[in-house]
Structures are given as C-alpha cells and as structure tokens.
Amino acid sequence: MPDWQNLDDKQLVQFARQGDVQAYGEIYNRYVLKIHRYIFAHLDNEHDAEDLTEEVFFRVWKALPNYEEKGVPFNALLFQVARNGLIDLYRRSAQSKQLISIDDVSIPDSVLDPSEIIVKKTRHRELRQAMKGLREDYQTVLALRFLSGLSPEETAQAMGRSQGAVRVLQHRALAALREAMSGIQVK
Question: Is 0.70 surpassed by the pTM of this model?
Fold first, then answer.
C-alpha cells in the first residue's frame, strides 16, 4: 500500500481513477480547505459553503473515470468545478431566494468570546459587501490567491490566464477592494 502523503497529485489521481478511495481521500485532504475558502469567499452562508464544497468533491469523484490529464494541474480542475458549482448555486438561489443571510449564521468557535464573534462577523460582512461590488474576475482572483492560498501559477491555471495577467488582475483587484473598503460604513 503506497504512502499517500508522499505521492504527487498525478499519482494520486491515477489511483483514484481506478477507484481507490484512500487516494481520493488524500486529494480531498490536500484541497478541501482551499476549495472551501474559495467558495465561502463568494457566499454569505457557512453552511452553504460546506455543502457546496462537499458537492464539488462528489462531482469530481464521479467524473474521475473519464478524466484525462491535459497538462493542467488537477487542482485547477477542482477550482473550475467549484466555480461552476457557485454559478449553479447562484442560478438556483435567484429562483428560490432561500439562502440565509450571514447575519443569521452563527460562527461555531467556542474559543472566541462574544465580542470577538461580533468583530469576526462584522469584518466578514464588510469584506463580503466590498467584494460584492467588485467585478467577478476581481472577486475570483482575490479568493483564489488570498483565501485559498494558491500561488500565482496555480491561480493562472485555475482561471485560464497567464501568470502576468493574474498579477495585473490581482493588483487592480486589491486597489479596487481597498477603495471599496474605505467607503464602507459599519452599521
């Protein structure tokens, strides 16, 4: 039995394509937090972000037997599926309008005292409010780079752009976010 943690993504994908659940479990462990952060950056609801994260990994698992590596890292596929999942969720929510507001979501962290929880919720709300006003590509590059922790190269692959284009986009997105954040008034 291989030592899953020492295998690279390509090797893990090969095992997972053959139905090896442990190999896919290692892929999941490597990327679940990054995918979750990316999704949560686009949603106001932690529970929806968790559900969609699980849906992304389920979709990828089902599609693995037909997956063909085409020179793009496997994590780029994960982020593409996450982006498509967000688009699907936006379409469904536009029809149903049943997503819960961030104000109605509790942050489960027993270490934080009530004042820290309020500050954390307020900061997240301010960031979400500022990011909602940004162009979609700005939102995506910021979420991939800073919330998911991807490198410029990984971000470029996930977005289907060159590294130089991602750097320029990131610079402009940060400037736009800074400007948007300076205009937010806390209620």
Answer: no
- Whole-angstrom Cα distance, residue 120 to residue 118? 5
Q: How many domains does the chain have?
A: 2
Residues 6 and 98 in one domain: yes
Question: What domain range includes position 185?
Answer: 107-187
pLDDT digits (tens, 9 = 90+) for 27-81: 999 999 999 989 988 887 888 899 999 999 999 999 998 888 887 788 888 998 9
Chosen domain end from 105, 140, 167: 105
Q: Are 66 and 123 in contact (CB under 8 A)?
A: no
Residue that terminates a domain, selected from 81, 105, 129: 105
Alpha-carbon separation of residue 92 from 36, 48, 63, 142 (angstroms): 19, 12, 22, 24
Task: Give yes or no for a contact between 69 and 10, defined as CB atoms under 8 angstroms apart.
Answer: yes
